[in-house]
User: Fold this.
Amino acid sequence: MKSATIHHLNTGLIILSCIVAFFIPFELFLFSYGILGPLHYLTEIGWLHKKNYFTKGKYDFVFLGVACVILVYWNYNPPKNYGLTADIILFSLLSCIAFVFIKDWLYRFVIIALALVFIGFLNNSPMFFTWVAVFLPTIIHVFIFTWAFMLYGVLKERSWAGLISILVLIACSIIIIVVQPGNLFYQVSDYSQKSYTQFGELNYRLINFFNMDQLTNIKQIFTTNAGFVIMRFIAFAYTYHYLNWFSKTSVIKWHMVPKKVLMATIGAWLLSISLYIYDYNLGLQVLFFLSFLHVFLEFPLNIVSFTGIGKELASLGKKA
Assistant:
């Protein structure tokens, strides 16, 4: 499939995700997270493995895997200082700067030590936990990092069609937030409320961060306009995050794996879907590690994307 065609397809998927998210945001999110999510985790991890996770060291991914195991363990057995969850997420991300650019372990230790000092200072910030533990592995991962991945590709290709898709993504995001209905025109079903409860903290903190409303409890995300508006954005961001990945199959070629691996992936995906259908919250618990593992293992790629954007912009500046 030609590059321009893929970008036009992406533009269409962005618009489609925006429209559906506008009317049934909770249902769209639950569908995307439960059906598209697991296949995305499995195929992206396999693709990243083929790319050596974009790091200099052969076993750097083990560090990220162990960090994720610790985080998941703490999720079910919270430490006394729950802020440590934010520390380990940011420490993993910053350590990837060393993993991506440096092979010598002496210099790596210097970067890692500086990361620890930096995190120590940030711990004094009142918004540190919210930004790192709540926003980074969720909305920043699916929206900001996806945007960066797209922009890097567009700058490398010098594609006008790709630029249009990025502009449409930004425009749809603004429209979703700015165009607010006078009242809720649909009721969130009991099933959707029960299934979404574990994500409620994200909505609650986003609403407070943007000063959209003064909620007194998380349940109000299902009954207020602010809760509805924020949910539209979350559903839109997550849905397009997954669709963007699958739309670029011919470019990324994540599907080009041995048949046994592909069959195992499909089998695991179908099992995941079955869990979500049987009990959505059970599916969340079983797949919690896999969902966070793909976030951690993607950190090096996120570093590559942002540095790549800088290099491409510098190159354009020189030509201008």
The mean pLDDT is 91. Residues 36 and 242 are 6 Å apart (CA to CA). The chain has one domain: 3-57+126-313.
